[in-house]
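Database export, one record per block. Field names are fixed; values are copied verbatim from the stored entry.
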Amino acid sequence: MNAPAHVPVDPRFAHRVRESFGRQKAMALIGASLTAVGPGAAEVSLPFRADLTQQKGFIHGGIVGMIADTACGYAAYSLMPASASLVTVEYKINILSPATRSLVARGEVVKSGRSLTVARAEVYADDGKHVASMQQTLMMLADTPDRPE
């Protein structure tokens, strides 16, 4: 992906993103990890596990969507102030081929606005096969901590 150049407002964005990801119980449940973070970009990896598959042995589409959603979310979060958090407003995912191997979701910010950010993610299998594409809109919640109340 050819990500546009982004300048984070928080110089400690990478630490903040990794700390937030560490609180994601859903990612821990499926065994996903945050493998890269940069200004306006994030990568989430998922090892193949049979218990994440649907009836035909493919990684369930909901799981593919989870890692793409998370990659987009942390790409957007990396550009937000430390005092903010975010929520997904909507996304569209196209599953292009069955997920039968370990996956990586690479998220990047397309456009970062005052309150809304548009991001996209591409999901690939470890053999390079393009599994899914997502486009997402996220809303910044200003002065709202990124942790449980």
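Remark 1: The radius of gyration is 15 Å.
Remark 2: The first strand starts at residue 33 and ends at 38.
End of record.
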